[in-house]
């Protein structure tokens, strides 16, 4: 079986998928966290590796950047390859002072300016939410960890260079914890397919004070805490 964006044999993709945005991060997860990892698809440089975590088959595959890119892969994974759960593990910009750079955010909801919030029900902006079972498992796994973990809504922005201080301030007043570019698309795809999804994010910079912007190398390597929480959610 193959689609325009994923080319592999039936059964090569596991029912559980860990999905960073960056293809290099997906490869790093496969090589360091999966046992017996095998590259099963590499269309357009978006590699998919399938191996095992504690004996359970898991695939690590990147989504690319933004809702449109993620939606292509998530839709094909759910619809064509029998995937049941996808957990996004990525980065975001922190908003409130209570969230520091390198803290972890478990996205219990995703606000967005993307059309995924309105396209399925014209005139209605849907509330995009994750799987409760995955959310609960992630929160349980995060308790007692070494790194600070926050649970709450994030904002999925369709524009990386968009959203000024007024927008960020208004989002902060509504309890929004971070800004990223994919979670709402993932939640929308899961809801449409009747499947499950969650986003677990590491704050890579702070939008209110500009502090602690992580380097590209740090973004690739300093996500182990979020990764373990994401794995717990997948395996729950």
From TrEMBL:
Recorded catalytic activity of this chain's protein? uridine + phosphate = alpha-D-ribose 1-phosphate + uracil
Q: Which GO terms describe its biological process?
A: purine nucleoside catabolic process
Q: Name one GO molecular function term.
A: uridine phosphorylase activity
**EC number from the UniProt entry:** 2.4.2.3
- Keyword Repeat found: no
Q: Please name the InterPro entries in this protein's record.
A: DeoD-type, Nucleoside_phosphorylase_d, Nucleoside_phosphorylase_sf
Q: Which UniProt keywords apply?
A: Glycosyltransferase, Transferase
- Pfam families referenced in this protein's UniProt entry, alphabetically: PNP_UDP_1
Can you give the residue ranges of the Nucleoside phosphorylase domain? 16-222
- Keyword Ribosomal protein (UniProt): no
Q: Name one GO cellular component term.
A: cytosol
* Top-tier EC class: transferase
Family annotation (PANTHER family): FI09636P-RELATED, URIDINE PHOSPHORYLASE
- Protein name per UniProt: Uridine phosphorylase
Q: Give the originating organism.
A: Tessaracoccus antarcticus
């Amino acid at each position: 079986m193959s689609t325009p964006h994923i080319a592999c044999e039936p059964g090569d993709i596991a029912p559980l998928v860990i999905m960073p945005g960056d293809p290099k991060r997906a490869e790093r997860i496969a090589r360091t966290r999966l046992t017996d990892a095998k590259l099963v698809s590499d269309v357009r440089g978006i590699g998919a590796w399938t191996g095992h975590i504690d004996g359970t088959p898991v695939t690590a595959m990147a989504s690319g950047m933004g809702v449109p890119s993620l939606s292509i892969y998530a839709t094909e994974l759910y619809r064509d390859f029998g995937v049941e759960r996808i957990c996004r593990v990525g980065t975001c910009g922190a908003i409130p002072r209570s969230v520091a750079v390198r803290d972890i955010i478990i996205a219990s909801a995703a606000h967005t300016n993307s059309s995924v919030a309105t396209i399925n029900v014209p005139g209605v902006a849907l509330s995009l939410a994750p799987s409760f079972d995955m959310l609960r498992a992630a929160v349980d796994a995060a308790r007692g960890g070494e790194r600070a973990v926050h649970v709450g809504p994030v904002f999925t922005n369709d524009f990386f260079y968009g959203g000024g201080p007024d927008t960020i301030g208004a989002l902060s007043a509504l309890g929004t914890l971070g800004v990223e570019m994919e979670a709402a698309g993932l939640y929308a795809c899961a809801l449409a397919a009747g499947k499950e999804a969650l986003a677990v994010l590491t704050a890579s910079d702070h939008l209110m004070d500009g502090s602690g912007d992580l380097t590209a190398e740090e973004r690739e390597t300093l996500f182990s805490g979020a990764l373990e929480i994401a794995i717990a959610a997948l395996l729950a």
